[in-house]
Amino acid sequence: MNNVILLLAGTLMHATPLLFAALGGVISESSGVMNIALEGVMTFGAFTGAAVAYASNSSWLGFFIAGLAGALLISLHAVASVTFRADQTISGTAINFLGPGLSLLLAKKLFNGSALSPTAPKLPILFPKNLTERWRGTPFENLNISVGVVIAFALVLLIWFLFYHTKWGLRILATGQHPAAVDTLGVNVYVMRYICVICSGMLAGFGGAFMSLSVTSSFSPSTVCGQGFIALAAVIFGKWTPHGVMLSCLLFGFAKECTTILGGEGTFIPPVLLEMFPYVLTILVLVLFVGKSSVPKANGVPYLRGAR
Q1: N or C of the chain: less Cβ packing under 10 Å?
Q2: pTM: predicted TM-score of the whole model, two decimal places
Q3: What is the pLDDT of residues 56-109, one digit of tens each?
Q4: Which CATH number fits domain 2-288: 3.40.50.150, 1.10.3470.10, 3.30.43.10, 3.90.79.10?
Q5: Per-residue 3-state assignment (H helix, E strand, C coil) for 64-122
Q6: In 135-152, which positions are buried (b, 16+ CB within 10 angstroms) versus exposed (e)?
Q7: Greatest CA span in the chain, whole angstroms?
Q8: Residue 285 above 60 pLDDT?
Q9: CA-to-CA distance for 3 and 18, rounded, in angstroms?
Q10: Secondary structure (3-state) at 43
């Protein structure tokens, strides 16, 4: 029972940063703007969260400033994609280079030439210490779940409700399917896409901050290390839906936690193979189980008002 509880806690911990970023990807791509920049934004969010939390001694301030930093960085992608109608793949790739490069540069400037930030305070855990003391001797004594986990899964419900039970959410979905039709109804497609892309950057920034403030307690160039690309795969595997993305992230989080457990002492599996497992699983899932995708029809297609 104790091992099951630890496996559950570890799965939730590893799934949460993916979930933040993947939900951002769902919002952006549902509006018609392809967002492959999640990796770069997560890295910049991880750096900002750790740096601000260390300087202010407040993990919450670091977490929220990281979201703002992610929104600011992704706004470059929004300007290029929405206003200038640039190739969205190239723009997103540029952000994936810019985010880690800018993070490394600022880290070395701020931390005396070191790319590793000092230890920052972690986000608080869900259960208070006095409650876990009462659980001592039970399987729940090691149930150490960050409050960020609750925020991420609450966002799944919020975005699901927004998409399928509000006019604003239906406008987002319609903008990603038939932007010209939405435009004729008086909805500003450009503003809608700007809002969605900036929200996606904020969520990806939260995901990066969760990595540096809960999964670890500092920033390094390898803190994110491919998590943004796995989040992008979760968007595709989850069929561009909040609930589908949640299940996808839980699967990838479970895979990551399995590598952690199997990588303990006495294992006969080479560490290199264990590190490859989540990424190999990502490829296998995309190749074998995705099937016919339900990608929004206008995803990645620049919109020009009046064009046919």
Answers
A1: C
A2: 0.93
A3: 999 999 999 999 999 999 999 999 999 999 999 999 999 999 999 999 999 999
A4: 1.10.3470.10
A5: HHHHHHHHHHHHHHHHHHHHCCCCHHHHHHHHHHHHHHHHHHHHHHHCCCCCCCCCCCC
A6: eeeeebeebebbbbbebb
A7: 68
A8: yes
A9: 23
A10: helix
